[in-house]
Write a structure and sequence with these properties.
heterodimer; A: 257 residues; mainly beta; 5-stranded antiparallel sheet; 14% helix; globular; B: 14 residues; 2 strands
Chain lengths: 257, 14
């Protein structure tokens, strides 16, 4: 028996909107720790990792570890039927091949349930060890989204370089080149508007911009985004989910042949 | 010409 009641149901709606274009089918894993997902895109270039900790749910019952295969587009369709202020409850019986999403309006005057068929999803789970990163950049998530969108109108790849000067995003294409430099800036009114560059070593890596643009669909989840870079590792783009966990995107770099 | 690496080249199946 599984029963997860999420008062801030909009979080789950936002999570699905953020990942449904990158990943088609995925297994949601439910354990005492929380509700999680790990999935790669079809080309195995990017990986999504979601964690919603059990403590973040108003009610969390998970009698045994369970993995539920879902088509994310279909799940998003169902969650779109929930209001932004609705409480969302996920329910599944042991051995059932369906999951039920129950939506309650804040005033309890409208209660809906949507039952979705589960599916077998063949997925490879990767072990991601803790790593020391050469550089970690924290910046407003809207600013990062803006940069990715702007650069993708010029080129297909972005070079992200972190030096003591700050972080530089560069691209080039048929029509020309573009460079955006963000310097550390902590003298802001609100902490979420700050740009913080922590650098242990300078690092410069090249990535496909279209993946970054897909990751920025996580922007509504958090005011800030954290970008962790190391020369021998995929970049990690992380959106914290307040009080509950995180949505992380990992992207393998491009290298010169 | 640049080569796109795969995520599975970095992380192993668990």
């Amino acid at each position: 028996m599984l029963e997860l009641r999420l008062v801030q149901g909009s979080l789950l709606k936002k999570v699905l909107e953020a990942i449904k274009d990158l990943v088609t089918d995925a297994n949601f894993d439910c354990s005492a720790t929380g509700f999680s997902l790990q999935a790669m895109d079809s080309s195995h270039v990017a990986l999504v990792s979601l964690l919603l900790r059990s403590e973040g749910f108003e009610h969390y019952r998970c009698d045994r570890n369970i993995s539920m295969g879902m088509n994310l587009n279909n799940m998003a369709k169902m969650l779109k039927c929930a209001g932004n202020d609705d409480i969302i409850t996920l329910k599944a019986d042991d051995g059932s091949d369906t999951v039920t999403f129950m939506f309650e309006s804040p005033t309890q005057d409208k209660i809906s349930d949507f039952e979705m068929k589960l599916m077998d999803v063949d997925s490879e789970h990767l072990g991601i060890p803790e790593a020391e990163y050469h550089a970690i950049v924290r910046m407003p998530s809207t600013e990062f989204a803006r940069i990715c969108k702007d650069l993708s109108s010029i080129g297909d790849t972005v070079v992200i370089s972190v030096t003591k000067e700050g972080v530089k995003f560069s691209t080039s294409g048929d029509i020309g080149t573009a460079n955006v430099v963000c310097r550390q800036n902590t003298t802001v009114d609100k902490p979420e508007d700050a740009t913080i560059v922590e650098m242990n070593e300078p690092v410069s890596l090249t990535f496909a911009l279209r993946y970054f643009n897909s990751f920025t669909k996580g922007t509504p989840l958090s005011n800030t985004v954290t970008i962790s870079l190391s020369s021998e590792l995929p970049v990690v783009v992380e959106y914290k989910i307040a009080e509950m966990g995180h949505l992380r995107f990992y992207l393998a770099p491009k290298i010169e042949e | 010409q640049s080569l796109q690496l795969s995520i599975t080249e970095f992380y192993r199946s668990s």
